[in-house]
Design brief:
The protein is mainly α. It has 10 helices and no strands. Among the domains are: 102 residues, no CATH class; 32 residues.
Length: 254
């Protein structure tokens, strides 16, 4: 009968563990998770490299203890998963690397149902992943076909521009080009006063935009400003001179 293997911090007692240089069966009976993980980690190395350790495990009940750990199942806790994985690795090393008697002992320890359960869970997970992938692929194909159908309908419903619209658009373009006419001519400059010195610079400044408009639109005919006629009329009136006082008095007489 083996003694209980657990740590007692109050009396400074540590639990017995397995190392790469020492195998102790009491280490597998430890109830604490962390010391058991440490022992299983070293035991995985020993079962890989030492045939004597594999034979001892089939005799002292170590293989049964490992299978009991596996039957507890994997928990969502990281430490529990680590413990389960290490125990499974130890059993696989014993069953694969051991002799025929060791393999028979592993089967007798009820390891086959655990392996069957693991394989069944693996097949279920693979089937579930395949179904999800097929559903995602079908959904993607359906969405792609729906987008192509909508794009085709949108292109078919889009109206094509008619000849009348094109003609109206060209007329609007021509009107916008021809809309820029010559600048306005200031005619009031000739009636401002009698001096011709001030009128001549204004005429030059008014003729400058006309010349620029002629350079911009060379195809337009040259328009002679009407200001010259008014200028001739004013000069004729100046040459005629003021009327005599006798004529003005005669016009006022009854």
């Amino acid at each position: 009968m083996r003694e209980v293997n657990f740590s007692i911090p109050n009396v400074n007692k540590a639990s017995v563990g397995i190392t790469t240089a020492l195998y102790d069966r009491r280490a597998l009976d430890c109830t604490s998770t962390l010391p058991l993980i440490n022992s299983l980690n070293h035991l995985a190395y020993l079962t890989t490299s030492s045939a004597r350790i594999r034979d001892i495990l089939t005799v002292d009940g170590g293989i049964e203890r490992l299978i009991c750990i596996l039957k507890q199942g994997r928990s969502k806790d990281m430490m529990g998963m680590w413990k389960w994985n290490l125990a499974f690795q130890c059993v696989v090393n014993i069953g694969v690397r051991g002799t025929e008697n060791v393999r028979t002992r592993v089967v007798e320890a009820d390891m086959v149902p655990i392996i069957a359960t693991i394989l069944d869970n693996y097949i279920k997970v693979v089937d579930r992943c395949r179904e999800k992938a097929e559903e995602a692929n079908q959904k993607h194909m359906h969405d792609h076909h729906h987008r192509r159908h909508r794009a085709h309908d949108h292109r078919a419903a889009k109206p094509t521009p008619s000849f009348a619209n094109r003609a109206g658009r060209s007329d609007l373009d021509q009107r916008s080009v021809r809309r820029n006419g010559p600048p306005p001519i200031d005619v009031s400059a000739t009636y401002a006063g009698p001096s011709t010195a001030t009128g001549q610079p204004r005429a030059d400044t008014a003729a400058a935009p006309l010349a620029r408009s002629f350079l911009v639109h060379p195809e337009r005919p040259i328009v002679t400003p009407a200001r010259s006629h008014h200028g001739f009329r004013t000069t004729d009136a100046r040459l005629a001179g003021p009327a005599s006082p006798s004529q003005s008095t005669q016009s006022l007489a009854p």
